[in-house]
Design goal:
Elements: E1 5-10, E2 13-18, E3 24-30, E4 36-43, H1 50-65
Antiparallel strand pairs: 1-2, 2-3, 3-4
Length: 71
């Protein structure tokens, strides 16, 4: 089964990248309580379906909460 996400660190910042449509790359940030957020989202694929984009972002959050963040 193909992985749908990968996480990595670049220049001291953490990123998540979605590897299936709709593909995107986003910086993972943390608030003072340690809760993660996605910022500076760059779309790789053009997608105008708001529902599909919302689901993709939600899945990215679920992926991170399951401990896939590489620090």
């Amino acid at each position: 089964m193909m992985e749908k996400f990968k996480t990595y660190t670049e220049n001291g910042k953490s990123f998540i990248e979605r590897l299936v449509f709709p593909r995107f790359k986003a910086e993972i940030t943390f608030n003072p309580d340690g809760v993660s957020d996605l910022e500076n989202v760059e779309m790789i694929d053009e997608c105008t379906d708001i529902s599909e984009l919302s689901k993709a972002m939600q899945k990215a959050g679920e992926y991170l909460t399951k401990g896939h963040l590489k620090k």
